[in-house]
Design a protein that fits this description.
CATH topology: Four Helix Bundle (Hemerythrin (Met), subunit A)
CATH superfamily: dinb family like domain
Strand content: under 5%
Distance between the termini: 11 Å
Order of helices and strands: HHHHHEEH
Strand order of the largest sheet: 1-2
Oligomer: single chain
Largest sheet: 2 strands, antiparallel
Number of domains: 1
Shape: globular
CATH class: Mainly Alpha
Number of strands: 2
Number of helices: 6
Length: 167
């Protein structure tokens, strides 16, 4: 595994800075777990689900970032590859995308997400799925949960692939 370049979240700060600090730490964990693998290993399933690959999770997280920050908070059309007929397309399509490209796309999407939250306040709300509203705080907290859950998956997958363990 490559060197740990993650930055610990600040112990003191406002709510947004601390929440983003934890989210950025988890985002960096995702990238750290993905780097240093061969293409074969990054695309190889070691768990019963063929979708649970390093490449598949990178792609999934990229599109989750895009959905919540671009589509939900900014109102842009959802450009993700999944459809009703192919609900797991972002996982499946990753099988044909080089790992370096998946990492670059994920990092670019995370940078866009940071730019969105820099323009908005935690209490800013937007319409959500004809169900009322959602605020930026909920989206950021949800992304901490989502990214953390998949960082745990990557811990397991990485250890099964090459024995590398770590935080």
């Amino acid at each position: 595994m490559t060197a740990d370049t993650r930055i610990d979240p600040a112990y003191v700060g406002d709510e947004l800075a601390q929440a983003e600090g934890f989210l950025d730490y988890l985002r960096a964990t995702i990238v750290m777990k993905a780097r240093g693998l061969s293409e074969d290993d990054a695309h190889r399933a070691v768990l019963p689900s063929k979708l649970m690959t390093v490449a598949g999770l990178l792609s999934h997280l990229r599109w989750v970032e895009a959905y919540w920050f671009r589509t939900v908070l900014c109102g842009e059309p959802d450009a993700a590859p999944y459809t009703k007929e192919r609900p797991d397309a972002e996982f499946e399509d990753a099988a044909h995308i080089p790992t370096a490209q998946l990492i670059a796309e994920y990092e670019a999407e995370c940078a866009n997400s940071r730019a969105v939250t820099a323009r908005m306040g935690l209490t800013d709300t937007v319409p959500f799925r004809n169900q009322g509203e959602v605020n930026v705080r909920w989206v950021v907290l949800h992304m901490i949960e989502e990214t953390g859950r998949h960082a745990g998956h990557l811990d397991i997958i990485r250890e099964l692939l090459d024995g590398v363990t770590g935080e």
